[in-house]
Specification:
It is a single chain. By secondary structure, this protein is an alpha+beta fold. It has a single domain, classed as 2-Layer Sandwich (60s Ribosomal Protein L30, Chain: A). Helices cover 28% and strands 30% of the residues. The chain contains four helices and six strands; from the N terminus they run E-H-E-E-H-E-H-H-E-E. The strands form two sheets. A four-stranded mixed beta sheet has the order 3-6-4-5. Strands 1-2 form a two-stranded antiparallel ribbon. Helix 2 runs parallel beside helix 4. It is globular.
Length: 137
Amino acid sequence: MNAINTQRTAINPVQWSTALGFQQGILLQGALRTLFISGQTAMTPEGAPAHEGDMAGQLALSLDNLEGVLAAAGLGLEHLVKTTVFTTDVELLLHHYGVLAERFGRAGVVAATTMVQVSRLAVPGQLVEIEAIAAGE
């Protein structure tokens, strides 16, 4: 995190998670702003679902939408401290997880992360939804 008055400390009593690209916990001290982001899915700006049956396409558009919310608050992916990835198919998500990992890696994101398989998401045809918390000045 590039905020002057914010200290970000990774909390990892065990180390295996860092090899997988996530932290067990993140302690923020001095954060001035916290943004709680609703689940972002593969929806067009007009509110229509996109990329039906295409996990990679849905991940990419979900990330675009997540970045749009962050940008509207004057933040970026590098400010993420917690993400929850909901999916209807964990195996399929893991097969395409590189889409998310590459984007987060480029931004230097190593957030506390949870992945959850659900029977369905709110919008029929959606395979993935990304909820997040970001913090920064």
